[in-house]
Amino acid sequence: MTLRGSGRERVMTPRECFSAAMNHEQPDRLLIDMGKHIGSLHRGAYIKLRDYLGDETMVNENTILDRMAQTVVPDESLLQRFDIDFRWVVPHWVQVTEREDVLGYVDMWGVPYKATETVDHYVVDGAPLLHATVDTIDDFQWPDPHDPDQFKGMREQAKHLFENTDYVIGADAIKAGVLMNSLQMRGFEQFFMDLVIDKEFAEALMDRILSTLKEMWSRYMEEVGPFVQIVYLTDDLGSQTSLLISPKLFREMIKPRIKELHDHIKSLADVQLMFHTDGAVLPLIDDFLEMNVDILNPVQTSLTGMQDTFALKESFGDRLSFHGAIDVQQMLPNATTDELEQEIALRIYDLGRNGGFILAPCHNIGHDVPPENVVTLFEKARKLGQDPASLGNILERDSSYFARHG
Amino acid sequence: MSINDELYDAIVFGERDVVIEIVREAVANDEDVSELLNVTMIPALREVGDQFSTGEVFVPEMLVSARAMQGGIDIIEPLLAKSGHQPIAKICVGTVKGDVHDIGKNLVVMMLKGSGFEVEDLGVDCLVEDFEGAVERGAEVVCLSALLSTTRDEMRSVIDHFKHRDDVRIVVGGAVITQDFADEIGADAYGADASDAVRAVRAALGLASVSS
């Protein structure tokens, strides 16, 4: 069978490659992803790329995927051009209200956002539960988990993709996770302190968020469960250099709740579960495995403990798969073509052995990334991913971005 | 005056009520609150900052300690002001235009306040004019924070803006900032984390660093 965009016979379809890779067996070729939330193109980067490619089929400039990050939904033509193996179905933004005082909105969790000066993205601008108590949590206007609009049309979309394409079909995240929502609703500083000095409140808030998310995921999986192979969940547990909270506090307060959500979703559908957390989270990877995580995203390779992807694969590769590993914070905006090629080769070499790897940008591709590097990323990844024998020569070259920049 | 161990521990372990009780008692007994601050409270918070740098404590514990410290400072501050006590220096701290991440910046503000500086927190997404305004109000050091690589270059604009001002020092920090980048854009000092920011500000002002 020939798939569009490749021009060559393939033994395995993307979906078959995914199945092999998740069983930690070597697929025919490298899996490549782009286009889900936290992993798409910023509107500014999209416009630059469109102009660079002169591609008139790219018309999604104003089709926003994530309003906060100002990313766009990539056009089908762009996904085909870059030979992307995944197609993501995305829950609709519901129960959002526009603000009248500033350019901004209030999301379904009641968290207000406002646009930055340049409207490059939106920022959290207040914490609706800052003054709440255990007794008043239920008085809050919680999102309606049974809103029929949240997943409207998604069943048809997922079914169509499942029946008419060979792509891996993913259920994109419901924004956001138990910890991140708690931090945003309560205010970062107050909730961090609650975890230490007001555990009763912290637990009550997290439990309320957890029960809401479980109900939403039940409905979500009713719609798309039979057609998707991967689900995406997000939270943030790490900073650039370490963890946001201690492993002990994480295990006591956060982990049991995220695990409960993961177990719930896995009981609803036969899916691989991909968990997103930014940061230097190496000390928690065994915990992620206990939390029923199949795939860790994004492997932020510019950070402490996450640079050594060979060691990461050695330690966890038989039990855990990896998604990401292409740094967008430092490397992708600044790397030369040679450095980019070597970086791609290194991550494929380190993480791609025996499957278990999906190459993708670690985060959204920002407007500081030159369009040349976006094109090089996907073209080289596809080429090198089909030709593992070529990796050795490239790795012998002295063109490591991270070596040059310490 | 020797160190007050009970107060020191109360700050390290974040026991705000205990801090308030001890400081109130000290005030009632007419103790020298300026010494209490310098000999016990500032070193206690510095220890928490050091523990944060070495990964012994994390953001929640540091926030709780800073909150406990603030409980004491709220009592002491009016008394210090009345006695003509001056802060070490006036500082402003803000996240540069286009960047909206503020946990790290907030920790820097807390550490600086807890180290004897008067700090004006300019918040996130700050324009050059915001920093300019703070300097007009007396800030000697401008601390710039950025988490995103897309906003790093905005730091350059702020530094360029103050280039002709010999009386303004610039300290930079944040996730995507390195010593190399700080040198490249001509910052006076670079802080690797919230605790190191205090050292960097002192260095920028030509003050000796304080060991814990």
Element layout with pairings:
The complex is a heterodimer of chains A (406) and B (212).
Chain A: H1 14-22, E1 31-32, E2 41-42, H2 43-53, E3 64-66, E4 71-72, H3 76-81, E5 86-89, E6 97-98, E7 104-106, E8 112-115, E9 122-124, H4 154-164, E10 168-171, H5 178-186, H6 188-197, H7 199-224, E11 230-234, H8 247-268, E12 272-276, H9 285-290, E13 295-297, H10 309-316, E14 321-326, H11 331-334, H12 337-351, E15 357-361, H13 371-385, H14 391-396, H15 401-404
Parallel strand pairs in A: 1-15, 5-10, 10-11, 11-12, 12-13, 13-14, 14-15
Antiparallel strand pairs in A: 2-4, 3-4, 6-7, 7-8, 8-9
Chain B: H1 5-12, H2 16-28, H3 33-53, H4 59-82, E1 90-96, H5 103-113, E2 118-126, H6 128-136, E3 141-145, H7 152-161, E4 169-173, H8 179-185, E5 189-191, H9 194-204
Parallel strand pairs in B: 1-2, 1-3, 3-4, 4-5
Helix pairs in contact in B: 1-2, 1-3, 2-4, 3-4, 5-9
What does this structure look like?
Chain A is α/β, with parallel strands linked by helices and 406 residues long. Chain A has a single domain (14-404), classed as TIM Barrel (Alpha-Beta Barrel), CATH 3.20.20. Chain A is 40% helix and 13% strand. An eight-stranded parallel beta sheet of chain A has the order 1-15-14-13-12-11-10-5. In chain A, strands 6-7-8-9 form a four-stranded antiparallel beta sheet, with no helix packed on it. In chain A, strand 6 and strand 7 form a beta hairpin. The termini of chain A are far apart. Residues 1-7 of chain A have low confidence and may be disordered. Chain B folds into two domains: 5-82, Methyltransferase, Methionine Synthase (B12-binding Domains), Chain A, domain 1; 90-204, Cobalamin-binding domain (Rossmann fold). In chain B, 54% of the residues lie in helices and 14% in strands. Chain B has nine helices and five strands; from the N terminus they run H-H-H-H-E-H-E-H-E-H-E-H-E-H. In chain B, strands 2-1-3-4-5 form a five-stranded parallel beta sheet, sandwiched between helices. Chain B is globular and about 50 Å long. Chain B starts with a helix and ends in an 8-residue tail after the last helix. The relative contact order of chain B is 0.13.
